[in-house]
Design goal:
Shape: globular
Distance between the termini: 50 Å
Radius of gyration: 19 Å
Bound molecules: iron/sulfur cluster
Length: 216
């Protein structure tokens, strides 16, 4: 629940999305949030457009559920700032509404906790902002067209708080960790910018030529 002992100032806030990037790969987090590197592939464009469409929608009410889109988020306790795709406010009594965050993802559920951590961070922001508990949320996956229900249990909250702390330290250090080629690299949108494999591989050569041409 909400802790009123704030530990971060406004200028220390990092993006909620940085936690997802950090949990996926610390180097990817640093490339995006320290070096401001971003590569828009067909897949990331699809994801961006999906988020933009969600945020463009107006609020709506369906019975005992009020739906708000693109809600600004902030936690001074965790030092986070961002935006929730969707927050459903579910009526639990005449004047009480239970927030239920819903994050939209282009792909499908993953084995790692990256998406869960990002959603949990949204819940922790909502708890601090609204002084309520947020026990559950969901992730809607575009590829499966299904919602994955998520419970914000003690273990996930701890994992999220640790990711916030580690991502903050990494971003504050300004140092990008070296690449380590792993299975996850095949799913990484920054594989061409990162060069996780030794020079000599096809994509690395292509990248080096592109960098040489692009550099001032
Ligand atoms: S390509 Fe691999 S090492 Fe490089 S940022 Fe992506 S996941 Fe990390």
């Amino acid at each position: 629940m909400t802790n009123t002992t704030y530990t971060h100032s406004e200028d220390e806030l990092i993006m909620v999305s940085a936690l997802q990037h950090y949990a996926f790969c610390p180097r990817q987090c640093a490339l995006i949030h320290v070096e401001q590197v971003w590569s828009e592939s067909g897949l990331t464009a699809e994801g961006r457009i999906m988020h933009e469409k969600v945020h463009e929608q107006d609020r709506e009410s369906r019975g005992n559920v009020r739906i708000e889109y693109g809600i600004p988020l902030r936690s001074l306790k965790l030092g986070l700032v961002g935006k929730a795709d969707v927050v459903e406010f579910r009526r639990v009594s005449k004047d009480t509404w239970q927030p239920f965050p819903v994050e939209y993802k282009r792909g499908k559920p993953k084995l790692d906790h990256c998406d869960l951590i990002q959603l949990c961070a949204q819940a922790l922001c909502l708890e601090e902002m609204l002084s309520v508990s947020v026990p559950n949320g969901a992730i809607f996956y575009g590829r499966t067209h299904r919602r994955l229900d998520v419970t914000f249990d003690v273990a996930l909250r701890k994992e999220t708080e640790e990711a916030a702390e580690q991502a903050r330290k990494l971003i504050a250090s300004g140092i990008t960790p070296p690449p380590v080629y792993e299975k996850r690299c095949k799913r990484c949108s920054l594989i061409e910018e990162c060069i996780p494999k030794p020079i000599g591989k096809k994509f690395s050569v292509k990248h080096y030529i592109k960098r040489a041409i692009d550099s001032p």
